[in-house]
Design a protein that fits this description.
CATH architecture: Beta Barrel
CATH superfamily: RNA polymerase II/Efflux pump adaptor protein, barrel-sandwich hybrid domain
CATH topology: OB fold (Dihydrolipoamide Acetyltransferase, E2P)
Shape: globular
Order of helices and strands: EEEHEEEEEHHEHH
Oligomer: single chain
Number of domains: 1
Number of strands: 9
């Protein structure tokens, strides 16, 4: 079960959660959605797209600004959130319960190393305040 205290965070404000199916679910943090304001549009990555950790793969737009969404891990985009496509504002309502896309990691050994490079919630909260 996804709980935001078990998420890993990128310095670019994305969260990653590896689920029981082995896929990594990706969304944005509470801090990111608050800084953006009312989210109006999400330009998703392409299904089947190969992504590298840290690469800009999508764009989220609000009434204030547009912001790149970076991939927290390397792999292949295997699912997109249809709900966010229909109602992007749900990211504002529940950023830790709303995933944007799912990534299938390419190598499990590399995944462990990449997840270790991300921050836990406590580390992220300190980083986001500075």
């Amino acid at each position: 079960m996804m709980t935001h205290d078990t998420y890993k965070f990128a310095p670019t404000h994305e969260w990653a959660s590896q689920e029981g199916d082995g896929l990594v679910w990706v969304g944005i943090s509470e801090h990111a959605q608050a800084a953006l304001g009312d989210i109006m549009f999400f330009q998703a990555p392409k299904l089947g797209q190969q992504v590298k950790q840290g690469e800009a793969v999508a764009v989220i737009e609000s009434v204030k600004a547009a912001s790149d969404i970076h991939s927290p891990i390397s792999g292949e985009i295997v699912a997109l959130s249809e709900q966010v496509d229909i109602s992007p504002g749900m990211v504002n309502e529940n950023p830790y319960g709303t995933w944007l896309f799912k990534i299938k990691p390419i190598f499990s050994e590399k995944l462990a190393l990449e997840l270790d490079q991300l921050m836990d919630l406590e580390q992220y909260n300190v980083s986001a305040r500075t």
